[in-house]
Amino acid sequence: MTDDLATETATLTHTAALARLGHALSDETRARVLLSLREAPAYPSDLAASLGVSRQVMSNQLACLRGCGLVEAVPDGRRTSYRLASEHLAPALGDLLRLVLVVDPACCSGDDCTCA
């Protein structure tokens, strides 16, 4: 593999990973799940209760996060807990939380986003 091809492949891989993370963070419930799992692994029922959503909503959000490769299921007897899929994800989320953006209040206000 040439250096250019290797660089292009790495860039595409990184782009796909960032797109998955962006998709996960684009939903408030998924973002809250990731932040909760940043603190410690948890059971879906406990996550649902702490975030104030139904178990079905939590199941759907965890399935999405699993599909994005961001969380993993950990069998625990008859139950399954969830944790972040990478040890690097918790510090990355922490870095994102420390990021300060200057936001135009007229832009990106929900469904009326004018940035596109």
TrEMBL record:
InterPro entries: ArsR-like_HTH, HTH_ArsR_DNA-bd_dom, HTH_Metal-responsive_Reg, WH-like_DNA-bd_sf, WH_DNA-bd_sf
NCBIfam families hit by this protein: HTH_metalloreg
Domain HTH arsR-type: 10-104
This protein's name: ArsR family transcriptional regulator
Top-rank taxon, per record: Bacteria
One Pfam match: HTH_5
Family annotation (SMART domains): HTH_ARSR
GO biological process terms on file: response to cadmium ion; response to lead ion
GO MF term list: cadmium ion sensor activity; DNA binding; DNA-binding transcription factor activity; lead ion binding
